[in-house]
Amino acid sequence: SSGGSAANDSKTTTDSKVCTENLTETDAFITNSLNLDPAEEYNMDHKQRGLALIFNQDYFYWLLGLNARSGSEADRNNLERRLKQLNFEVRCYDNLKQVEVLEKIHEAAEEDHSDADCFLLTFMSHG
Fold this sequence. Notes:
Helices cover 39% and strands 20% of the residues. The chain has helices spanning 6-9, 16-34, 72-85, 98-110, and strands spanning 48-56, 88-94, 116-124. It is globular and about 50 Å long. The chain folds into 2 domains: 12-39; 48-124, Rossmann fold (3-Layer(aba) Sandwich). The chain has a 3-stranded parallel sheet with strand order 2-1-3, with helices on both faces. By secondary structure, it is an alpha/beta fold. The longest helix has 19 residues, at 16-34. Its main location: cytoplasm. Residues 69-96 form a coiled coil. This is Caspase 6, apoptosis-related cysteine peptidase.
């Protein structure tokens, strides 16, 4: 038979190279995050934390064949609440068209952010 089967096609991966690469990446991340050079730390001492833009896309152009992302409002609301707790100015946008997204980003880029720690841009979508 030319078709696959779960018994034959769903084998446990024993490729040691894959496992080693994953461990190496994880170890490198942990090591790097524990050995921070104070000279390379990001300045977070400004008067304002900064602006955070959240673009949440629930619905998609029908030709893409993507299902609506039901329940994504809860994720967006949780992120918005957490960012506000971190003293960000948060602006949320739902289901904007591409040109509208670019307009909002351009508007934010034109603002004065010189007394802010950082700028955060988040896209919530499929994938």
